[in-house]
Sequence to fold (241 residues):
Amino acid sequence: MIQLITFDLDDTLWDNGPVIRKAVKECYSWLLKKCPELEGVYDSVSLNDLKDEIKSTRPEFAHRVSEVRVVGMKMALERVGYKTDEAMILAREAFEVFHHWRHQIELFEGAEEVLEQLAEKYPLAVVTNGNADVKKLGLGKYFRFSVSAEDMNRSKPDPVVFMRVLELAGVTPEHAIHVGDNLITDVQGASDVGMRTVWFNPDKAAIKKAAITEENYKPDSVVHSLEDIPAAIENLSVRVW
Ligand SMILES: [Mg+2]
Fold:
């Protein structure tokens, strides 16, 4: 019997690439306009690169996807002469711009109907490595709770993340199904703790990378359209394991 369904967000419920590109552009445009001292020293690309630089050199920021962006902008502002306090205030204000645009998403067709349908029957929860907030998206009503990499200071596929979700729901792994688009972070991560998995593969992507084979990270079910998720879950729920 299924007692919990967990959902990934980015690229499972909406196409995230364009959302992030727009949010990054708006955020850095705001900052460059607000702080002309940055002109000629930084542009949108180099400001964004700072985030990756910090992530790779300071492990304490590895899972803090919001904070790393703030710290990157603060660092840039300090380098062009802003005092620490002022740099931090401006970086946080700029991040608010990012955060606003990060939530301007367009759900995949049928996404809300699927959530509505599933939520009537099962408790749903969010497990995300990103910083989208379902409450800000008007989807909070479908989910009992959310767990993010930032909350946990760990990211999927770390089994600790999935164990935490199960603990919060008071459910054992064999009674839980995770739905996500990524074979490693979602399918491998959830499988490693004994959850069943539904791989959302809208592009019907072939598994090409050497490190990933369908054999290694075999999803219990594969769907190419969100509308097929309820049926996939029904099939899994009647299967004996
Ligand atoms: Mg995803």
